[in-house]
Design brief:
The protein is of the alpha/beta class. It contains eleven helices and ten strands. It has two domains: 148 residues, Rossmann fold (3-Layer(aba) Sandwich); 110 residues, 3-Layer(aba) Sandwich (Rossmann fold). Strands 4-3-1-2-9-10 form a six-stranded parallel β-sheet. The chain has a four-stranded parallel β-sheet with strand order 6-5-7-8. It binds D-glutamic acid.
């Protein structure tokens, strides 16, 4: 079985990491659309067409049994279009974890940290209306964090004051309440979680949906009879691979793929 994990950059590796733990017998193909990175401020119509068209090529080349869109910015826009265009391929999306945040918050003040694209999507607004009506949900669109995460994970020095500037609007306080949960609604952000914790004005729960997405992918694979065992079988011997649409990821990014056990195509 092959699972294709897709993102605009390296953020989807945070989802791949969890999915592998649950499905060690599966072969993974990681695709980073780095030529088009960042997706965060693309025009919606153009991005939708781009992602749906790109998937046509990916399906033809890799023939996956299941695809994980490990990108909130793409999922909140293109999931429906992808499912409609490629009805034979099961898709697992990554969308802001607003429902679990609403269930867990004590203060009722929840923030969603995402790209500007994810923040403005109807999909995200609908999640709030459907699941978080009793909470105050503060949407924070960050222009720079995904790129900062790429730089950080490649080993470059990052300016902590820049990061603080991006996360500061997530922290809201009134007379007797303050934000207690921040949803990491971009798959790049878990790479920065340690810095977020260090820089946070007060401790909060940073919600990373990667494990839930992995569980969803496992359950869909089992239901669809895609796995011969429950996924805990023998380690697969085919090498997992990574494709970068630029065709030329820089050295640090290549090294990172090797660290994740992925051979860059
Ligand atoms: N990793 C993507 C997400 O989850 C966003 C990065 C980008 O701006 O392209 O939304």
């Amino acid at each position: 079985m092959t699972i294709l994990v897709f993102d605009s950059g390296i953020g989807g590796l945070t989802v791949l990491r969890e999915t592998r733990v649950l499905m060690p017998s599966v072969h993974f193909t990681y695709v980073a659309d780095d030529k088009a990175f960042p997706y965060g401020d693309w025009d919606e119509d153009v991005l939708l067409t781009h992602v749906v068209d790109l998937f046509g090529q990916l399906i033809e080349r890799f023939n996956p049994n299941l695809a994980i869109i490990a990108c909130n910015t793409a999922s909140t826009l293109a999931l429906a279009g992808l499912r409609e265009t490629y009805p034979d391929l099961p898709f697992v999306g990554t969308v802001p974890a607003i429902k679990p945040a609403a269930e867990r918050t004590q203060s009722g003040l929840v923030s969603v940290l995402a790209t500007p694209g994810t923040v403005k999507r109807d999909y995200t607004r609908d999640l709030i209306t459907s699941f978080a009506e009793r909470c105050e949900v503060n949407l924070v669109g960050s222009k720079n964090l995904a790129a900062i995460a790429e730089a950080y994970i490649s080993g470059a020095a990052v300016d902590e004051s820049e990061i603080l500037k991006e996360i500061r609007p997530c922290f809201i306080e009134d007379e007797n309440r303050r934000t207690d949960i921040i949803v990491l609604a971009c798959t790049h952000y878990p790479f920065l979680a340690n810095l977020f914790r260090k820089l946070a004005p007060w401790p909060v729960d940073w919600l990373d949906p990667a494990e839930a997405i992995a569980r969803h992918a496992l359950s869909l694979s089992e239901k669809g009879g895609l796995l011969s065992t429950s996924g805990s079988g023998e380690q697969n011997h085919r090498e997992d691979v990574a494709l970068f649409t630029s065709g030329n990821p820089e050295f640090a990014i290549r090294r990172l793929q090797t660290g994740f056990g992925l051979k860059v195509l």
